[in-house]
From TrEMBL:
<dbReference type="Pfam" id="PF03184">
    <property type="entry name" value="DDE_1"/>
</dbReference>
<protein>
    <recommendedName>
        <fullName>DDE-1 domain-containing protein</fullName>
    </recommendedName>
</protein>
<feature type="domain" description="HTH psq-type">
    <location>
        <begin position="12"/>
        <end position="48"/>
    </location>
</feature>
<feature type="domain" description="DDE-1">
    <location>
        <begin position="161"/>
        <end position="285"/>
    </location>
</feature>
<dbReference type="InterPro" id="IPR009057">
    <property type="entry name" value="Homeodomain-like_sf"/>
</dbReference>
<dbReference type="InterPro" id="IPR050863">
    <property type="entry name" value="CenT-Element_Derived"/>
</dbReference>
<dbReference type="GO" id="GO:0003677">
    <property type="term" value="F:DNA binding"/>
</dbReference>
<dbReference type="Pfam" id="PF05225">
    <property type="entry name" value="HTH_psq"/>
</dbReference>
<dbReference type="GO" id="GO:0005634">
    <property type="term" value="C:nucleus"/>
</dbReference>
<dbReference type="InterPro" id="IPR036397">
    <property type="entry name" value="RNaseH_sf"/>
</dbReference>
<dbReference type="InterPro" id="IPR007889">
    <property type="entry name" value="HTH_Psq"/>
</dbReference>
<dbReference type="InterPro" id="IPR004875">
    <property type="entry name" value="DDE_SF_endonuclease_dom"/>
</dbReference>
Amino acid sequence: MSEVLDDDSLSQFKRAVEAVTTKKMSIRKAASAFGVSKSALQRRTTGQVAVNAKYARTKRGQCFTTAELGLFVCRVVEESPYKREIPASFPSYLWLAKFIKSNSKHFSRRKAQNLETCRTIAATEENVRSHYCNLKTAIESCGDFPPSCIWNLDETGMCGQGSRNAKVVLASKGKRANVQQSDSRDSVSALVHTRGAMEGVIFAASERSFLVTALFVKYFKWFVNMIPPAGPVLVVMDGYKAHFTATTLACARSQGIILYAIPAHTSHFLQPLDVTVFRHFKRELDNEIDSFQKQTHMMVDKSNLAEIGSRGLQKALT
């Protein structure tokens, strides 16, 4: 986010920066003497933030729904110096659709991705650069070793209801588009590691639908026994608290395994399994659920979700 300073504040910051860079004052004394933020002064003197404000285009687009775009267009027309009679129905949905199509080089209609506030704050260029620099350091610390020794670990959930609202065909008038689905909303979590293909599956259960520490430790020990013993191994995963426990760290250290944690709240675009495999897996899972219900005339529940999910996962990995 850009930081805009007025003339007085900018002058004070410049004087504070000069006092620190010429070693006349410490950061603490300069911050107190010139009435500026200590943390801001530290960032500026270390080159992290320039003294002058940086004006640039945001990396995230300003999103409008169709209705909001209509209100925006209507307001622009009303405030235009060219006076004209504006119909009460302007702009219509058809007009907006044509407007978007004719300006497709500048913007487009896409499905929005919902982001929690913490994810929005964490998704910065600084965090991404720091992540890849740290990952490079972790890889270089292992020495000269093949890519086959780099593993990615993640978990995801499956629900018998699927994850999408499919489009259906029915009479155009007088009918509601309702589709019967399973009444089970229980989420079955699947923890997956991959190096290009799925060779086997193990089953375990916890009292809750979330991955707990004891279950992950059991899985991690199984994983250690499955990977080749030669050479160092790098495992990339998100920093979920169940992943990084004293037992897991001790087990990894004893086996020469380096654990690398993806920055918090960034797995939605930095976690390789989330971005590639699991996204495709959810589509294949929805297709398998639809196929199962059509062929068997039964609803999906936890008793058959593992079998259906395995078929979807195999298709996603091949």
